[in-house]
Structure formats: structure tokens, C-alpha cells
Design a protein that fits this description.
alpha+beta; 15 helices; 26% strand; elongated; seven-stranded mixed beta sheet; five-stranded mixed beta sheet; 618 residues
């Protein structure tokens, strides 16, 4: 055989071996095939007979698996079947839990839709609709859809985008996402993404380049590798004991806390999320150390309150953090506080300490009022008045947090709605049942709040309208004789012109705008008449109050409305300018202001007939 033929023969033998080798590799569940170098490195792997194109991805802060799969076009919504998750785990053998990923972790992820992959159906106990696994939730009093999503740990910035849209797609019978009713069954997606975060250290606390390089090398060493056949594995040997200190201080997930602690955690999550802060209770939290190691916290066991003022509070509700870890965090992270509960501590006592730890720019405690001076004066009081940001303090827009003893002490929805228009948020948290309020206005029966209007051309016209409201008959432009000849009417007489006259309980009331002489007044009084002189310069309200005082009609200036049935030192009050008139038949409230609908509802609840008046100037 010539040298040329020998080379051709060897080439053919090599190609045959290569083909048989590739066929053997494809028999495995997932094996790595040659990569194709384009703009990115494409990794083609076999999964259940399908060729899966994928690329390597380095996890960023805030990522989670479902989000990444949607961005890559693998799924078209934020719900995924178990088979897709099985594929992800097959591509990443070291990934035990797809819900727990961390920044800088290397993942192999599909690059687009996977044709031919069958979606596994879920058990009928929960259900699958339009490819979305769901569970049934029976609505309790005071609950809303957004509350369910917050309980699932979904980030606040995503609730009203993909997630709420998904819930509405599952529940076409719900027309308004803010209106659900007690006893109603709603379908909720069966999934819960994780939150991960690595805090940024201060310049003085930055990890050295040498340490960072070592950490990077260590993380790369942990990246998914191609499985090694059992025959190729080295025999096990006993590891040598190392005297070097560990660089990573990882906390193993502790035992589940008691039911009471879980309830407290849920309560704090609801409260601080409603305040507007971020409550992280899923995934893991990483705190790098100056030594190059890091503390890893299971966020479910140790939730973190991420405040907008830059502060972070780690909640150790069961006092389970080791003292060594506490000392490390306090020594290296000045922006972090570790908050531990006390034995047999009640929720109000715990909240009192925790709120002070938050370092809010402004805080008013129980009994300390905050006044908003405007046409309708507002006196704010509650268990806590919190100004989460400096801008809230300067604008006078607090968050009012209350722990009512019962639903009867909850803030009236009308009052909360009016305060919301003033950028003041009210949070009522009921510890029994972890319920939160006030309930949305749309869930209440409508209240008649028609406001009447009186437009008068002058003061006398306004007084006539007032007497009509009081069902008082009257006469205008009357001439009343004061003195006359007893023998004949033709000899002489003395009369007085009266712009307005009426009789009440046997007394004649003479309404004038000019004073009479003392003698005439005495004569009229002897005849059972009472003269009321009004000063036009003092205005219509002063004239009305003078007449009401003269006839003994109960009245006062201004009405104070309370926002709830709580004690006065923890209640909110609205002081509305106007003339309040009460008697056994009715209660009238005359005001020159445009009354907001929410406060008009509260006035209607107090049985006030509300009249807006306007007196034109001559």
C-alpha cells in the first residue's frame, strides 16, 4: 500500500469512529455537543430527542428563572410547566432549585421557543387553564387581588404589569381588579419567583482585587461541568483537615419558625409593603465580607426590609441568628440593622421598636397630632404617623398606621379615599387574621350625597331661603302700625316699615337693617314684637346666626367629622366651615365650600342635609 493510500485509509477510519462516537453521546439524556462560534457561543444539547440551542448566561442582581426564560422567548408569559423547569435543571446539573439563583452564577439557558416539547398537565385538584397552572382561593373580607400577589413575594414593580394581567386572564369574570367579594372563588397562578440581591459596599469596604479574583475563580470552579462517567471517577479519599478559615459563612436554612412567628412575618410584609418599602422574603441575600467571604441569608427565614432611605433591616423574628454572624454584619455593614424580637412581645410593641429602627425622617407617635391647614382643616392622629421620605415630610404627607382592636374601629372608606386625594395614606392592620384596610369604596353600597345649592341675590334673599329651609312662614315689605287714634283711624297713626316679618311661638320678629329709636322699640316690645337689626357689612352668615340666636334655634359654626370610631387621641378629624343647624326634625349644614363627595358621604351618614350657598354682592 502506497503512503498516499495509507493516509486516505486512516482518514476514512477516523471519520467512521467520529460518527459512531457522536451517536453514542446522543444516547445520554443531556450531553454536550461541539459548540458553534457565532456572535455568541451556541451550546447545542440533546434533551429527550430534541436538539436544544442554548447559551451561557451570568446571573445579574434581580434576575429569576421565569424572567430570563421570557426574555429569551422560551415562554410567552411568566408561568411555566414542570417540564420546562426540568429542562433547565438538565442543562444545569448543579442547579438544585431553579427558584434560588444568585448574581454571577453561570447558567446554560435555551435561546428560543422549543418546538416539540410536551407540556405536562397538572392534577385537576388545582387546574390548568390556557397553559397556566392555578390554584383556587376563596376571598375573605377585606382582601384584594393585589394582597394575594404581595403574599406570593412578587416584586411591587411587577405586580401591576405581567402578574396582574395574568390573574385577570385567569378570571375573566372579574371586571375590576380592585373589586372582589367575600366568598368569591378566584384563580391564582401557582408559582413564586425569588428575589436576590447583593448590596453595594462603601468605598472603604470594597473587597480587594486579589480577593475578588479569588472569589471569581472559585465561582467559576463551581460552574456546571459535563458529567463524568462513573468508570472515570477517581476513588474516594478522606479529605485532609484544613486549618485555613472558611471564606464563606453560609447559614443553613433553619427549622421553620412557630406559627406565631410566621404570622408576624406575614403581618410585617403586608404593613411595610403598603407603606411603600420593599419586603424581601424569597430567595437569598448575600453580604460580602472584607475578608473575601460572604454571609448568605435565606430570605424566607430572615426577611429583609429594604427602605427607600438606603437602610436595610434584617428581621430575626425567632432569634435564631448566631451571635458570630450578628457581630460580623454589624462590624462591616453600617447600613444594616439586625432586628430581633423579644419573648412574648405583642405586635404593637414590636412595631413600636421596629418603626424607630427604620430611621424615617419624620415620626409622630400615638397622641401626637399633625395639622394640615387648608379650607377643610385636617387633624391627623393615629398609632403612628410615618413620613418615609424627606419629601413626604416637607410636603406634609404622612402614612398613618393603625392597629384597630376590631373592624368596628376601622377607618371609614370615604375618609381614607379623601385623604388619598391629599396624598395621605391610611393603613389599618387587624392582627386577628392579618387583614388590612380600609376596604375599597367600590365595595360599599352607594350613599345618597346630593348637595343642594342656594344662590341669593342679597342678604335678605338669603334669610328668606334660610327661613324656607326651617319651614318658617314669613312676610316681606310689611308696614306695621305702632301708634293710632283709638277713636278714629283718620286722626293720626305711626307705622314702621319692616323688610321681613315672621311669627314664631307667639312672638313677632321684625327684621330690619336700620335701628329704631328706643321709644319705638319699647312700644313694639310691649306689643309682643322683637326687633332684630342686621348689619349688611357683616355678611350673610353673621345675619343668619343673629336671627337663629334671636329665635333660640340650636346652631354652631363648622362641623367636625371623625374618620373612624377610634378614641379621640388616635382618630382623624375633618373640620368643615359652614353653619350647622339642628332641631328635632332635621339637621342642616349650610356651607360656602364645594364639599368633596367622600366628605359629603360622611355628612350624610350623620343625617345632615347639605346645602351649598352663594350670596351675590350688590
Amino acid at each position: 500500500m502506497t503512503r498516499k493510500r495509507w493516509l486516505v485509509f486512516r482518514l476514512l477510519i477516523g471519520l467512521i469512529c467520529l460518527l459512531f462516537g457522536l451517536d453514542g453521546l446522543s444516547a445520554a439524556a443531556v450531553e454536550e455537543e461541539p459548540t458553534i462560534s457565532l456572535v455568541k457561543t451556541i451550546i447545542v444539547r440533546d434533551y429527550k430527542g430534541l436538539k436544544i440551542s442554548s447559551t451561557e448566561y451570568s446571573v445579574q442582581s434581580g434576575d429569576y428563572i421565569l424572567k430570563l426564560l421570557k426574555q429569551r422567548g422560551v415562554i410567552d408569559h411568566l408561568v411555566v410547566s414542570e417540564e420546562i423547569l426540568d429542562l433547565v435543571k438538565a442543562l444545569n446539573p448543579n442547579l438544585k432549585n431553579p427558584n434560588l439563583i444568585y448574581p454571577d452564577q453561570k447558567l446554560i439557558l435555551p435561546t428560543g421557543p422549543i418546538n416539540g416539547l410536551k407540556f405536562l398537565k397538572k392534577p385537576a385538584a388545582t387546574g390548568v387553564e390556557s397553559g397556566i397552572p392555578y390554584r383556587l382561593q376563596r376571598v375573605k373580607e377585606g382582601e384584594r387581588l393585589v394582597i394575594y400577589l404581595r403574599r406570593e413575594g412578587i416584586p411591587e414593580n411587577l405586580i401591576f404589569n405581567e402578574y396582574m394581567e395574568l390573574v385577570m386572564r385567569l378570571n375573566p369574570q372579574i371586571k375590576n381588579r380592585d373589586v372582589i367579594y367575600p366568598g368569591q372563588l378566584v384563580k391564582l397562578p401557582r408559582f413564586k419567583p425569588s428575589s436576590v440581591e447583593i448590596p453595594k459596599a462603601k468605598p472603604s469596604e470594597q473587597v480587594s482585587e486579589k480577593t475578588a479574583a479569588a472569589s471569581k475563580a472559585k465561582s467559576e470552579a463551581k460552574a456546571p461541568q459535563t458529567p463524568v462517567p462513573p468508570s472515570a471517577k477517581k476513588p474516594k479519599t478522606k479529605p485532609k483537615k484544613s486549618t485555613r478559615k472558611k471564606e464563606v459563612l453560609a447559614l443553613k436554612p433553619p427549622q421553620l419558625p412557630e406559627t406565631e412567628t410566621l404570622a408576624t412575618q406575614a403581618a410585617l410584609g403586608i404593613i411595610f409593603t403598603r407603606i411603600g418599602e420593599q419586603f424581601i422574603s424569597t430567595g437569598q441575600h448575600f453580604l460580602p465580607l472584607k475578608s473575601g467571604g460572604q454571609v448568605t441569608l435565606n430570605a424566607f427565614s430572615f426577611p429583609i426590609i429594604k427602605l427607600r432611605n438606603g437602610h436595610r433591616i434584617i428581621l430575626d423574628l425567632g432569634r435564631r441568628l448566631p451571635a458570630q454572624v450578628i457581630r460580623l454584619i454589624r462590624a462591616e455593614w453600617s447600613g444594616y440593622t439586625i432586628f430581633q424580637t423579644k419573648p412574648r412581645e405583642k405586635l404593637n410593641e414590636l412595631l413600636d421598636r421596629l418603626i424607630k429602627e427604620c430611621g424615617f425622617p419624620g415620626l409622630y407617635e400615638k397622641g401626637q397630632p399633625f395639622i394640615i391647614e387648608q379650607q377643610i382643616k385636617i387633624k391627623l392622629q393615629g398609632d403612628w404617623l410615618i413620613f418615609p421620605r424627606k419629601i413626604d415630610l416637607s410636603a406634609g404627607q404622612p402614612v398613618i398606621l393603625n392597629l384597630p382592636s376590631s373592624r368596628l374601629e376601622g377607618t371609614f372608606p370615604e375618609a381614607a379615599a379623601y385623604l388619598a386625594e391629599q396624598q395621605v395614606k391610611v393603613i389599618d392592620f387587624y392582627p386577628k387574621g392579618n387583614l388590612i384596610g380600609p376596604e375599597p369604596l367600590s365595595s360599599l353600597e352607594p350613599i345618597e350625597t346630593d348637595i343642594e345649592t342656594i344662590i341669593s341675590k342679597d342678604i335678605i334673599d338669603f334669610i328668606m331661603a334660610l327661613l324656607e329651609l326651617l319651614d318658617q312662614k314669613f312676610t316681606v315689605d310689611l308696614s306695621i302700625p305702632v301708634i293710632k287714634d283709638d277713636q278714629t283711624d283718620d286722626n293720626f297713626s305711626l307705622s314702621v316699615n319692616i323688610p321681613l316679618y315672621f311669627n314664631k311661638n307667639g312672638t313677632d320678629y321684625l327684621i330690619r337693617f336700620q335701628k329704631l329709636s328706643k321709644d319705638l322699640e319699647q312700644i313694639l316690645e310691649k306689643q309682643g314684637a322683637k326687633v332684630v337689626v342686621l348689619n349688611p357689612n357683616e355678611g350673610a352668615v353673621a345675619a343668619a346666626r343673629m336671627i337663629l340666636s334671636a329665635i333660640g334655634q340650636t346652631h354652631k359654626w363648622g362641623v367636625t367629622l371623625k374618620a373612624s370610631e377610634r378614641p379621640s387621641d388616635r382618630n382623624i378629624e375633618f373640620v368643615i366651615p359652614g353653619l350647622a343647624i339642628t332641631d328635632s326634625n332635621q339637621s342642616l349644614f349650610l356651607t360656602p365650600l364645594e364639599i368633596p363627595g367622600q366628605l359629603a358621604s360622611l355628612l350624610a351618614k350623620q343625617k345632615f342635609r347639605v346645602i351649598k350657598f352663594q350670596v351675590n354682592k350688590n
